[in-house]
Known about the structure:
This protein is an alpha/beta fold. It has six helices and seven strands; from the N terminus they run βαβββαββαβααα.
Amino acid sequence: xxxxPTLVAGLGNPGSKYAANRHNVGFMVxxxxxxxxxxxFAVVRKARAEVCEARLGVGGPRVILVKPLTFMNLSGDAxxxxxxxxxxxxEHVIAVHDELDIPFGEIRIKxxxxxxxxxxxRSLSKSLGTKDYARVRYGVGRPPGRQDAADFVLKDFxxxxxxxxxxxxxxxxxxxxAIIEKGFVTAQNAVNAPKPTEPTAQ
Length: 202
């Protein structure tokens, strides 16, 4: 068994102005993962990212948590050099990001495929030279009415949404851990499985 680390890239925009935006769920999940492993992010200026190195549990798999400081559209400029530095190929990269095409609060994982207009993923694919990396996708749903999608994702979650957001962030962190500890296929089958519906009153 090799000790090749997994690089987990939480996608988002740096700074307090963007911290609670829908577009920043990747940063939120990275923060939860760092908290779980008892690690702290440190700014690595040369890499233009905040980085946290840790293990999942005592003697568990190594993880490199990354929050790019390049802004979303240039996420790959931070992630790809760090992957190269740590000797991590795209197979061991997980991107965590918001997803407009998934209902609010739902978590899905996939490997490869298109970027769905997500500029962070587009930058990542370009810099890594492939689309074949894992994605943990946090559903933010479609904007109401005719609101522009770009404006929608750069708005904060509504106050009424916060309890569900907090739960969803934890579930997304669970999904990342499942990919690392159980393998992609097992994690995908568990996370993407249809959830049982509540019985209706007769």
